[in-house]
Every structure is written in structure tokens, then in C-alpha cells.
Write a structure and sequence with these properties.
Blueprint (H helix, E strand, L loop, with lengths): L2 H4 L2 E2 L12 H6 L4 E8 L5 E13 L2 E11 L1 H23 L3 E6 L4 E4 L1 H6 L5 H7 L3 H4 L4 H14 L1 E10 L5 E12 L5 E10 L1 H23 L3 E9 L5 E9 L1 H7 L3 H4 L4 H5 L3 H15 L3 E7 L4 E10 L2 E8 L1 H33 L1
Antiparallel strand pairs: 1-2, 2-3, 3-4, 5-6, 5-9, 7-8, 8-9, 10-11, 10-14, 12-13, 13-14
Length: 360
């Protein structure tokens, strides 16, 4: 009886072997038989084996067969693992939200995923690969960036992460965050590079707009005649306001304080103005943070002999305070009040004198 039956041999798809698929009958019919089987041994272990069978002849007569069995189970498992890995990579490659590309050192594209083609304005990876003949001139706005990339790949085997200013198919510019690695031959020759590109054009535009806005804010901030200062809250472990630290202050505030920004930035109110400064303003800070609305108040500064009208505005874990010197108006009001009181006394005195004359 054929051994393939005794050890429960099956086809690779799991189906039983038919008589004409078994090695021995085929060899006895004059064939050199090679086959691959799934084998379940007596202990229940399933193996994949390859067999090679040939006839044993005496003269012109075939009297038997000889079969060589080779266990290729590990090989098959490795092949299956490799195939699964390749399928996973292919899925990642094709479905990734970032652009993935392989490019030769001569500047030709070897492969690209859909995200990469979309990023650069091509209808498909195939169109992109067929049209790109020189990465250096068709991608790079600044040729020296291409040379810098190649030099890093040759010398270090890796490039980036780095920001590159490149161009799309229609010539419009874009910014990308790029990283690449070199793939070399066994002899160390650079064969091609594998890279990942992330489109950061919108982020770069936003950063530029922010810088421009910040510059405008800085001009306004420093040009105001009123004092303006920004503070960051410091909380304890329970989230309660403990103190606050200076983030920024404009020139009028610094002049009133007699301070230099570089020496007081990041310091607490007590460190800047002396012990008790935090406690003096704690009620106001707690009020604006609890209510979430601005609060205005007037205060006299003995050191400056000036009156100020302050408005504190909550901004998350920050607050901004503006201050206007109202000393002239306060002194004018005081003078007016004093004049009113003087006139009132004079009027009373005059009224009293007239009454006396009438008595006489």
C-alpha cells in the first residue's frame, strides 16, 4: 500500500489524493514523479512535504520505486509569512494618507502610491511614473535641495525629517515634510531611495499668517499709549489660583514700573512688585476667572503718585490687563470739587453776613 495513504497525504488544497495522483502508481507506469503533499502524521502534526520518486529497474523490468521525502513546512511557513507581509505592505503603500515613493539615484520614479500622485497633481501613480524623468528638475524648486538630499543619502544613508520646497505637475509650489532612506546593493552602491512626503503647505501658510498677525499685534502692542501686560496663572495641585507670572508687557507699562522686560519676564507679581502684590490683586483675578468677563477698576499708585483705570480680561489660563493714567482727570475732578466746596463755603458765608445786616 502506498505510504502516502498510510500517513494520510492530501493535496495542498486539502483534498484527498486520487490513485493516479499517488507517486508509486505513476512511477510503476514509467514516470519520474514529483509532488507536494500535506501530510498528517501519527501524532497529528501536519507537515508540507515535497517528494521525488523514480523507478527501480532490473534490466527492462520495473520492480519497485524509490521516493525521497523533503520536509518543507518551515519554508512554506516562511513563504506564507513573507506573502502576508508583502500584502500588508502593499495595503499600507496603496492606502496610506501620506505619499510614499521609490526613486532611483538617476532621478526616475520606480514606484509611487496614490497619495503621492495626488499630492503632486497627477491622475494616477502610473501617469506620474511615466512622466517623471528627472526628479531634480521636475520636483525641486531649488536644485541645491536635490543635491543636499542625495549627499545625505550617500553619506549617511538617511535624509530628514526635513522641510522641502517643491512643485506640483502644474508648477504650483508646495511644502512637504520629507524623510528618505537609501537602499544599497551588497557592494554598497546606492540603488534607489525610499521616501515619505507629507504635504505641509497649509501649515506653512498658517504659520506665515500667524507671523504676520503677530508682527501686527507687536506693532500695536508697543505703540499703545496705555500700559498693557499679559499674565499666566500659576495654580496649586487642586487647581486654585496661587499666583501669576508675567508673559509680556509693553513699553508704557515698563516705564511706569521702572523695569526692563528681560529681567522680569516669567517672574511672579510678588517678585516684580514686592511681597503682597499677589494678595493685593487676588480678589480681582479670582473674580474675572470665575465669571469669565472683563472687570474694570480704579487704583492709586503711591509710588508714582498717579491714578490708573485698569481693565483685566480673562483668556483661559491667562489674563491681560490694560491700564490708563487718569491722574489729570482725577486731579481736575479734585480741583473742581475743591473749588465747588470753596464756593459753597463762600456762599454760605455771604448768606450769613446778609442775614446779620438784616437783623441790624
Amino acid at each position: 500500500k502506498d505510504i502516502t495513504q498510510r500517513v494520510s497525504c492530501r493535496q495542498p488544497d486539502g483534498k484527498p489524493l486520487s490513485l493516479d495522483e499517488q507517486p508509486t502508481p505513476r512511477v510503476l507506469c514509467g514516470e519520474i514523479a514529483a509532488a507536494r503533499f500535506l501530510v498528517t502524521g501519527a501524532d497529528g502534526t501536519e507537515l508540507t512535504v515535497e517528494t521525488s520518486s523514480g523507478p527501480v529497474r532490473v534490466g527492462d523490468r520495473t520492480i519497485g520505486s524509490v521516493t525521497v521525502w523533503h520536509d518543507i513546512t518551515r519554508q512554506k511557513e516562511a513563504e506564507r509569512t513573507l506573502k502576508e507581509s508583502e500584502e500588508r505592505y502593499r495595503t499600507i503603500f496603496e492606502d496610506a494618507a501620506v505619499g510614499i515613493v521609490q526613486a532611483s539615484s538617476e532621478g526616475r520614479l520606480l514606484s509611487a502610491n496614490k497619495a503621492f500622485a495626488d499630492m503632486y497633481g497627477y491622475d494616477s501613480p502610473e501617469q506620474m511614473i511615466s512622466e517623471i524623468t528627472d526628479v531634480g528638475t521636475q520636483f525641486y524648486v531649488n536644485p541645491e535641495d536635490r543635491e543636499k538630499t542625495l549627499r545625505a543619502l550617500r553619506e549617511k544613508g538617511i535624509f530628514g525629517p526635513s522641510e522641502l520646497y517643491l512643485k506640483r505637475r502644474d508648477g504650483t509650489p508646495l511644502w512637504v515634510q520629507a524623510v528618505a532612506r537609501a537602499v544599497r546593493s551588497p557592494e554598497g552602491k546606492l540603488l534607489y531611495a525610499e521616501g515619505i512626503h507629507i504635504d505641509i503647505t497649509d501649515r506653512k501658510h498658517a504659520e506665515k499668517a500667524f507671523r504676520e498677525s503677530e508682527a501686527k499685534y507687536r506693532i500695536l502692542f508697543e505703540s499703545l499709549t496705555e500700559e498693557v501686560h499679559l499674565w499666566k496663572l500659576v495654580r496649586d495641585k487642586k487647581g486654585r489660583v496661587k499666583t501669576w507670572k508675567l508673559v509680556d508687557a509693553n513699553p508704557p507699562a515698563l516705564r511706569n514700573w521702572g523695569k526692563d522686560l528681560d529681567t522680569i519676564k516669567g517672574k511672579t507679581a510678588d517678585e516684580i512688585f514686592g511681597p503682597g502684590a499677589t494678595g493685593h490683586s487676588m480678589r480681582i483675578v479670582q473674580k474675572i476667572m470665575a465669571e469669565g468677563v472683563p472687570f474694570s477698576f480704579e487704583e492709586y499708585s503711591p509710588g508714582l503718585d498717579k491714578y490708573f483705570r485698569f481693565t483685566s480680561i480673562p483668556l483661559g489660563d491667562f489674563f491681560i490687563t490694560t491700564g490708563t493714567d487718569i491722574t489729570p482727570s482725577r486731579k481736575a475732578a479734585e480741583a473742581l470739587r475743591h473749588e465747588h466746596e470753596r464756593l459753597e463755603l463762600a456762599h454760605r458765608a455771604a448768606g450769613a453776613g446778609t442775614w446779620d445786616r438784616d437783623i441790624v
